[in-house]
Design brief:
single chain; about 270 residues; alpha/beta; Elongation Factor Tu (Ef-tu), domain 3; Rossmann fold; seven-stranded mixed beta sheet; five-stranded antiparallel beta sheet; about 25% helix; globular
Length: about 270
């Protein structure tokens, strides 16, 4: 059992919680994730570790209420416990001194972007962050980003806050600008990551995306998380979740993510029965 130490809603349908997990907090690195279950019969839900405090022994998770299981998680409060928290899982982000790094996050993808951008800056990189959402209400972690990074640009699709437009439109300004961009990290919904990869490819800039396909055991045994990268089958849980964005087969990824959409809708409508 892992105790929830803190919980708050940070946007409509999105909440942040700190979970007691001292061993994971001590070992986790940027880019890694955990798989959690809310109770003994709960679905296994993969979540990127957004932050951690090894001394205090907690990890930070951002959850968007989408289906039955994440909505159940949304009903938990500080003091409640999770049945399982397994991790840290996945391959940590490759961190080195690249130069100027452009970190792009969309929606809840802003949460996994945060520790990666932080690690890149700590390695001596100039880190430029572009974060976005559909509207002002859905922008998350703006204060946290602006506290650490000198350049954080907020975008909204509807123009209700910050730059009016998609994160890719703002990112293009930097790609066309005087500074040479050495690395792009793009994390968010699949259409956004595809758009980032398509944007950066003509510039020849190394582009990393973080994939969150259907995932069950987190050990590579079940094969549910398989993706096609560069014409080869990869398992996101043990060989990812980060891959070369220019090599990802986004069409196949999109198709596989929608495999159980009907069942998910039925389960949500029926209350999990």
């Amino acid at each position: 059992m892992n105790k929830i130490l803190f919980r708050e809603h940070i946007a409509p349908g999105i909440f942040h919680m700190k979970v007691e997990a001292p061993e994971i907090a001590a070992k986790r690195k940027a880019g890694q994730f955990v798989i959690i279950r809310h109770d003994e019969e709960g679905e296994r839900v993969p979540l990127t570790i957004a932050d951690a405090d090894p001394k205090a022994g907690w990890i930070s998770l951002i959850v968007q209420e989408m289906g039955y299981s994440t909505k159940r998680l949304g009903q938990l409060r500080a003091g409640d416990t999770l049945a399982d928290v397994v991790g840290p899982l996945g391959v940590p982000t490759h961190i080195e001194k690249f130069g100027t790094c452009l970190c792009i996050g969309g929606g809840v993808g802003v949460a996994p972007l945060y520790p990666i951008a932080e690690a890149l800056q700590a390695a001596g990189n100039e880190t430029v962050c572009v974060i976005g959402a559909r509207n002002k209400e859905l922008v998350i972690l703006e204060k946290e980003f602006k506290k650490i990074f000198k350049e954080t640009h907020v975008c909204t699709d509807d123009g209700s806050y910050g730059f009016h437009g998609f994160v890719t439109q703002k990112a293009k300004e930097f790609l066309d600008g005087p500074r040479k961009i050495a690395l792009v990290v793009g994390i968010g919904p699949v259409p956004m990551m595809r758009a980032v990869a398509n944007l950066t490819k003509p510039y020849g800039v190394k582009t990393v995306v973080s994939l969150n396909p259907i995932m069950l055991d987190g050990t590579g045994m079940c094969g549910a998380c398989r993706v096609n990268v560069g014409g080869e089958t990869k398992f996101a849980c043990i060989q990812g979740p980060e891959f070369d964005g220019h090599q990802v087969d986004f069409d196949l990824l999109t198709k596989r993510l929608g495999m159980y959409s009907v069942q998910e809708k039925q389960c949500t409508c029926a209350g999990g029965s």
